[in-house]
Amino acid sequence: MSTLATDLTTLTGDYTIDPAHTRIGFVARHAMVTKVRGAFNEFEGGAHIDGANPEASTAKVTIKAASIDTRNAQRDEHLRSNDFLAMDEYPEITFVSTAVRRTGEDTFDLTGDLTIKGVTNPVTVPFTYEGLATDPFGNVRAGFEGSVTINRKDYGVTWNAALETGGVLVSEKITLEFEVSAIKNA
């Protein structure tokens, strides 16, 4: 059995996110009483991981805004509209890392610039390293999971509707969820 320190050293390399085995999702409160979950189905990205010096690692992700999927076509069309993501004018959501900080044995804070609707703000996503494995096709895969809560109004996503009972239809706080499987480049 290898130790995590060994795993981090063997982690060193350049990786490409595997969209077929990665989920970039979100959760928003709806009508103040339930949660709506969704995901983006089209994205690409990668990372350079320095296992000996994690602080030297970098990551970048580009998400196609039009690929938003909440399993409700009418809601998805509204989310793509100017009320929310304005995908015709801003077809991509991007994240570019600016810093990595190790916070524990298998945990890291990934800080970077998140751009939604042309507005860029710094965000820090706590990630857990889930491990390294070789799949049946000989690909070396690394797994990471993380989530962070942002305020959508910070990105100019301000549409809402008041409820008769008080409160609003869509929460300002949105939780972004990342379940990443990345393949080590040959």
What report would you give on this structure?
The structure is a single chain. With 186 residues, this protein is mostly beta strands. The protein contains two helices and eleven strands. The chain has an eight-stranded antiparallel barrel with strand order 1-4-5-7-8-9-10-11. It starts with a helix and ends with a strand. The mean pLDDT is 88.
Question: What are the main properties of this structure?
Answer:
186 residues; mainly beta; Lipocalin; eight-stranded antiparallel barrel; 2 helices
SSE pattern, N- to C-terminal: HEEEEEEHEEEEE
Structurally, the number of domains stands at 1
Number of helices in the DSSP assignment: 2
Helix and strand composition category: mainly beta
CATH class: Mainly Beta
Strand order of the largest sheet: 1-4-5-7-8-9-10-11
Count of individual beta strands? 11
List the uncertain runs: none
* CATH architecture identity: Beta Barrel
Look at the structure and name the CATH superfamily: Lipid/polyisoprenoid-binding, YceI-like
CA radius of gyration is: 18 Å
- Shape summary: elongated
| Share of residues in strands | over 45%
Distance between the termini: 25 Å
Q: Which whole number gives the mean pLDDT?
A: 88
CATH topology: Lipocalin
Helix share, percent: under 10%
Instruction: Give the biggest beta sheet.
Output: 8 strands, antiparallel, barrel
Family: Belongs to the UPF0312 family.
Pfam families: YceI
Domain Lipid/polyisoprenoid-binding YceI-like: 14-183
Protein name: Polyisoprenoid-binding protein YceI
